[in-house]
Amino acid sequence: MSETEGLRDDTFKKGTTPKVPLSPVPEGQDKVEEKATVTEELEEVVSPPYLSGGKAAGVREENKGGISLAICNETGDRQALLCFKSQLSGSSRVLSSWSNTSLNFCNWDGVTCSSRSPPRVIAIDLSSEGITGTISPCIANLTSLMTLQLSNNSLHGSIPPKLGLLRKLRNLNLSMNSLEGNIPSQLSSCSQIEILDLSSNSFQGAIPASLGKCIHLQDINLSRNNLQGRIPSAFGNLSKLQALVLTSNRLTDETPPSLGSSFSLRYVDLGNNDITGSIPESLENSSSLEVLRFMSNNLSGEVPKSLFNTSSLTAIFLQQNSFVGSIPAITAMSSPIKYLSLRDNCISGTIPPSLGNLSSLLELRLSKNNLVGNIPESLGHIRTLEILTMSVNNLSGLVPPSLEECQTKLEISLI
Fold first, then answer.
1. pLDDT tens digits for 78-130?
2. CB count in 10 Å sphere of residue 136
3. Angle CA(83)–CA(198)–CA(216) in degrees, nearest 5?
4. Taking Cα atoms as reference points, which of 216, 356, 341, 240 lies closest to residue 291?
5. Is the pLDDT of residue 60 over 50?
6. Which helix (H) or strand (E) holds 152?
7. Would you identify the CATH topology of the domain 3-41+112-413?
8. Contact of 320 with 343, CB cutoff 8 Å
9. Which neighbouring-strand residues pair with 370?
10. Adjacent-strand bridge partners of 302
11. CB environment 79-89: b (16+ within 10 A), e (fewer)
12. What pLDDT was estimated at residue 77?
């Protein structure tokens, strides 16, 4: 696959420094078990080893010995940061400022505090700092944390379930590390989360269906892991969802029928999995979807006609599936489609001349199908066209003069 054909996975991701086999949890079963698990495992905040007693500073319910709650909260954040640091190592200059002798933790590198008094930690950004180690549960004591950005490091181990205690968390980016284990269902308790990027790790098991309860989710990137099972149907209920990237896992079964229900959805990448069935009508008819990537799956049936007459889609990647039937005719007067890849399928019939109506088209890839007949003259009238591949078909006739005239600027593969 060429770089242009693949497009960037992070085209619509926000807040990023750009987001084994276990059988999937049966629908319904996880709802009862999960509620009990969340209650049990998130009942109590982790106490940093620097503190005595059962409860960490920062979550006291009363004022003892004349110490104000505000001071306890401030001290608790500092101690939580030191506890979090104790599980990390590496040559990072950033962590050198996280010192037990430095009282003003808001000046520590990678730490952002609120402007109110007393200051609370609201963001940690240690991305691309060469850090190794594990994520300590102590971080759950930073109860005002809104952003946790640890991408592109060498972290290992699992995600602490107690991260679910961070009820104000909006952006969680742990991408490009060596984390493993299951994605904890307790993350669904982060009810304000908007961006979840766990891509490029070694997570396994099923995608927690409980994530469908995080109604503020806008971007989900779980790509390049070892996740199995089905895509949770509850993802179709996320009305604010803009980007869903699940490429390069081992996902199976059909795509949930409701997946394209969000009027905010712009980018869907489910490529390089083992997904079966057809493209859901909710995705076919989405009025907001701009990029659809379903390449390298086990999809079958005919290519939906509505995809080719969209008012929003600019990129359609359906290569390396088992689609049959013919290429749909273009009836839309002005289509925004720029990239169209149907190569490596079982598509038959002739190439419809109406493809020439795709006036914004940059790349058209139709190779390795069962196409017959002539190459339409109309394709040479697409002035924007840069790549045209039609090799390994049963086409006949001559190359249209209009295409021959374009060869100085057009990359053509017909053999």
1. 999 999 999 998 766 788 899 888 889 999 999 999 998 899 999 999 999 99
2. 21
3. 95
4. 341
5. no
6. none
7. 3.80.10
8. yes
9. 348
10. 324
11. bbbbbbbebbe
12. 94
pLDDT at position 22 is 28
Distances (CA, A) of 162 to 189, 237, 302: 10, 25, 46
CB-based contact 328:340 (threshold 8 Å): no
Write out the two tokens for 115.
């402007």
Round to whole Å and give the CA distance between 65 and 305: 73
Average pLDDT over residues 318-322: 98
The neighbouring-strand residues paired with 273 are none
DSSP state at residue 181: E
Q: Is 19 helix (H, G, I), strand (E, B) or coil?
A: coil
Classified as helix, coil or strand, 171 is strand
CA distances (Å), origin 214, targets 12, 14, 131, 158, 192: 19, 17, 29, 21, 7
Give the closest residue to 361 by CA, choosing from 379, 345, 344.
Answer: 379
22 secondary structure, DSSP code: -
Compute how many other C-beta atoms are within 10 angstroms of the C-beta atom of residue 224.
21
Element (H, E) at 84: helix 69-85
Residue 292's SS3 state is strand
Q: For Cα atoms 4, 8, 9, give the angle at the middle one, nearest 5 degrees.
A: 140
Q: What is each CA distance from 393 to 34, 58, 203, 245, 389, in whole angstroms? A: 52, 68, 40, 32, 10
Residue 105 and residue 128: Cα distance in Å, rounded? Answer: 21
Distance from C-alpha of 149 to C-alpha of 123, rounded to nearest angstrom: 8
